[in-house]
Amino acid sequence: MKIEFWSDIICPYCGLMDNRLRLALGRFEHADEVQVVHRSFQVHPDLPRQGVAQRQLLRMHDIPAQDGERMFASIEGAAHAEGLDPYHAMDRTLGPTDYAHELLALATDKGRGGEVWTAMFRAHFGARRELWTKEQVLDFAAGAGLDREEAAQALNQRRYRGRVAADQREAERLGAHGTPFMVIDGRYAVPGAVGTEALLSAMAQAWEAAHLVPRPLQILGTTDENDATDAACGPDGCAVPPHPAP
Length: 246
Prior knowledge:
The structure is a single chain. By secondary structure, the protein is of the alpha/beta class. It is built from 9 helices and 9 strands. It has helices at 12-27, 54-60, 65-81, 98-109, 113-127, 134-143, 148-157, 161-173, 196-208; strands at residues 2-7, 35-40, 52-53, 93-94, 181-184, 188-191, 218-219, 233-234, 237-238. A hairpin with a 3-residue loop joins strand 5 and strand 6 (188-191).
């Protein structure tokens, strides 16, 4: 089974789904036969390089402060319940993530994609790490055990810019309008943030159907009305789900 996971490191729902995917795989009986491929999707590519505060971004998109506070408090509560503590969804700075994604592509080529993606989520949401400039990204690379000189060369040459852009085009072709977005075996889509149980159910359903005649892309991941599949981040900000994400 192949799980493609499109995300952005500044998307708080993506950090949750990175954790939930690991939890689901830990309970999936065929986990040793699952390949996870992380792919890039930039939700705010036009942010200034110096970054902007989350509260300022909410104002830029005309999102009422109380809605933003409610949404991010819900995310932080869910993260805390899942052992991701601290998890700063509101009190942080956001910026363009092109260099970050290019570094992540390099890490993938080095066979360390999954662990470096997780480390970057933890750096940003756990420590409010800013990863918008080359120097910030290179400092992170060195701390993550990647060769700083090799990483600098890749970023200066923009070696992975085409791959990052291609990832996003492919997600949009499949119907994604934001992150997180997962596709299982190229046939089943899991859009938005869903709970661990719903994700595990989607994986099991896709596994059982693996030998059926291929069908068009189907939406999986929801098991009841409490699964916030509309919990996602896009260019206009993060959606406020009708129910808190599990």
